[in-house]
Write a structure and sequence with these properties.
This protein is an alpha/beta fold. 35% of the residues lie in helices and 14% in strands.
């Protein structure tokens, strides 16, 4: 199971843009989409679209329709069928089952308050670092809790997984023709026992993004710097599932006047609002440096 290989320079270049349909797109999404399209064209590659909607509560059909309209408005073009994550839960369940069979996942019954109270520092995103309490439960205890209907998520036994995979590297590069990537060491241990299957859905961002990239044959992942550290987890899961690892390029984030990154959670001004305010696609491109 250990290993996982990088894609090769001879692989056809396949890029993807993968927004979530849990709100309206903003300039940050536009930058990422146009950045991906720009480099794909320079590389003579293809661009795919994926809609990440595993959060079936917050993700809604009207946001999907708005997403298509916004991407069409800014001139983002993609090829092939759109992969919608909520249509492919079976793929993620199969991957989780494989990790579970290898003894790499364990059920965690802890509440958020307990996790926060027992945290051993924070992870690279600033969230409480899980103490590992449920890792110590016996098989009988786990089975009893699950049989009782207790809500639980499935965590990766990080120490065991990292030992099995061995040292790993991440190929970080600007996707420039002929430019060799820089191999940086992956450090998944700093994330602790991350959740790979959530309580409310049969997967997690970390698991589904790895499975999707492999299924879609993605060779180049272009995304924001806010996901730079999370690539450690993705590289490890790729190795555990014996999947190829794409080249990664993490671009700068679009920020507001307060130097905060644009985000849906902060109600950053949407592309729809800009369009209604009279902005043109050319205005968006010039604002983001693609004019």
């Amino acid at each position: 199971m250990a290993g996982g290989r990088h894609v090769t320079a001879l692989s056809p270049s396949i890029f993807r843009f993968a927004p979530s349909s849990n709100g309206l797109l903003h300039l940050g999404h536009a930058y990422s989409a146009l950045f991906t399209q720009h480099w794909a064209r320079l590389m003579g590659g293809r661009v795919l679209l994926r809609i990440e909607d595993i959060d079936t509560v917050r993700c809604r059909p009207e946001f999907v329709e708005a997403l298509y309209a916004d991407l069409d408005w800014i001139g983002f073009a993609f090829e092939g069928e759109v992969r919608i994550q909520s249509h492919h839960f079976a793929d993620y369940e199969a991957a989780a089952a494989r990790l579970r069979a290898a003894g790499l996942l364990y059920p965690c019954f802890c509440t958020r308050s307990r996790i926060a109270a027992e945290a051993r520092g924070t992870d690279p995103d600033g969230a409480p670092l899980y103490s590992g309490r449920c890792r110590a439960l016996s098989d009988a205890e786990r089975e009893r809790w699950i049989a009782s209907g207790e809500a639980h998520q499935w965590r990766l036994d990080m120490a065991r997984a990292a030992a099995l995979a061995g040292p790993l590297t991440i190929a970080e590069t600007m996707p420039t023709p002929g430019r060799a990537p820089v191999l940086r060491p992956a450090e998944p241990e700093r994330w602790g026992d991350v959740v790979l299957v959530r309580k409310d859905t049969p997967t997690s961002y970390h698991l589904s993004v790895v499975v999707d990239d492999a299924i879609q044959g993605v060779t180049h992942v272009t995304r924001g710097m806010d996901l730079y550290a999370a690539t450690d987890i993705h590289r490890l899961v790729q190795a555990l599932l014996e999947l190829p690892s794409p080249f990664y390029c993490h671009h700068a984030l679009v920020r507001d006047q307060a130097d905060e990154k644009l985000s849906k959670s902060r109600d950053s001004e949407s592309l729809r609002a800009l369009r209604l305010a009279g902005w043109t696609p050319q205005d968006v491109r010039r604002r983001l440096g693609f004019g």
